[in-house]
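Researcher: Structure for this, please.
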Amino acid sequence: MRISAAPIDPAPLLAAARASDGGVCVFLGVVRDHNVGRATAAVEYEAYLPMAELEIERLLGDLARVHPEARVEIRHRMGRLEIGETSVAIVASAPHRAEAFAACREAIDRLKTTVPIWKKEFYRDGTSEWVDPTGAHASPR
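Model: Predicted structure, token format:
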């Protein structure tokens, strides 16, 4: 499974990179202590798991077609996460760094816009709100 409530360990993702590849790009998204000028205490991720897993598989297939030299692995965490915890990990390897960087960037950008994963932010003032998964803006609920 690529989506889990368990903490993300990037080591197995790095181990999946081909030893022959010259470029390995790692992206770790971690819970930050602020968003749009507001102090954040924690976040909570929810997903419709069957659809989210299917969309990640579809995304990986698309990446393989667009970046045929790259190998990409993705993990996303669900549930409540505290400041500093890893929420998403992406490892892309390719024969050269440019391809690894391009595949990694496309993976995180598309993950945020196509995979049904929702984030609720909890603020230090005691309020909370669901936020736009693309990071474009926060929207109260």
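Researcher: Any notable elements?
Model: The first helix runs from residue 11 to 15. The two ends are 30 Å apart (CA to CA).
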